[in-house]
């Protein structure tokens, strides 16, 4: 859903839950993307959370991280995602893409705390795990832009656009424009 594909994300969450109703990341994503109001979402998160100890196994850390992020407690969220990364380093990933998810979420939490350097580190790690993925590079460039390093951000955006297939270039350009707009850098956005 990072690239605005809410419908696809909801379908993927539903499929994952059909395969494993106890799969916490899919359950939390399904709740977050639902049409429920905030109070209903809070109750749904609590229902999922009642099945797991916060901060125990990876599921408990995932819930703690997601709850913290939902409540905009960004430092707590970044720390919990860091625990997920640490746990993954001790063993296998509980699902394919777990490390990328954890690094991306940690990077987003660090962006919210304005810890741009640690956000950059998280997005670099996510990008290294999935070199062809667009999202880590988009957010890495955004982290550099927020850190007042627009030349580095521009180079990352240019590289991302140049590396994309002709079919993807228009969409990539739109996401770069959206990133610049979100940073109130309208002059650079117009360049795309």
Question: Any overview of this molecule?
Answer:
- The chain has 192 residues and is mostly helical.
- 72% of the residues lie in helices and 0% in strands.
- The chain has helices at residues 6-19, 24-33, 38-49, 58-70, 74-89, 98-112, 116-129, 135-146, 150-163, 169-182, 186-190.
- The relative contact order is 0.07.
Backbone CA Rg: 17 Å
Q: Give the SSE string.
A: HHHHHHHHHHH
The portion of residues assigned to helices is over 70%
Dominant shape: globular
Number of strands: 0
Residue stretches low in confidence (pLDDT < 50, at least 5 long) are none
Helix count equals 11
End-to-end C-alpha gap: 23 Å
Structural class: mainly alpha
Q: Kindly estimate the percentage of residues that lie in beta strands according to DSSP.
A: under 5%
Biggest β-sheet, characterized?
A: none
Q: Residue-averaged pLDDT, rounded?
A: 89
Quick recap:
The chain has 11 helices and no strands. With about 190 residues, it is mainly alpha-helical. The model has no long low-confidence stretch (mean pLDDT about 90).
Record the SSE blueprint:
Elements: H1 6-19, H2 24-33, H3 38-49, H4 58-70, H5 74-89, H6 98-112, H7 116-129, H8 135-146, H9 150-163, H10 169-182, H11 186-190
Descriptive key words:
mainly alpha, 192 residues, globular, 72% helix
């Amino acid at each position: 859903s990072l690239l605005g594909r809410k419908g696809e994300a909801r379908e993927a969450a539903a499929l994952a839950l059909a395969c494993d109703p106890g799969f916490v990341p899919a359950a939390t994503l399904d709740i977050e993307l639902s049409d429920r109001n905030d109070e209903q979402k809070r109750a749904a998160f609590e229902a999922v959370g009642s099945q797991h100890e916060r901060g125990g196994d990876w599921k408990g850390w995932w819930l703690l991280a997601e709850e913290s992020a939902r409540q905009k407690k960004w430092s707590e969220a970044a720390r919990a995602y860091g625990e997920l990364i640490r746990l993954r380093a001790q063993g296998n990933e509980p699902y394919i893409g777990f490390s990328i998810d954890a690094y991306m979420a940690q990077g987003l939490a660090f962006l919210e705390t304005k810890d741009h350097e640690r956000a950059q580190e998280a997005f670099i790690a996510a990008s290294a795990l999935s070199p062809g993925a667009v999202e880590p590079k988009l957010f890495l460039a955004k982290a550099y832009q927020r850190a007042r390093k627009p030349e580095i951000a521009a180079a990352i955006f240019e590289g991302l656009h140049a590396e994309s297939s002709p079919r993807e270039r228009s969409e990539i350009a739109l996401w770069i424009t959206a990133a610049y707009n979100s940073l109130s850098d309208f002059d650079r956005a117009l360049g795309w």
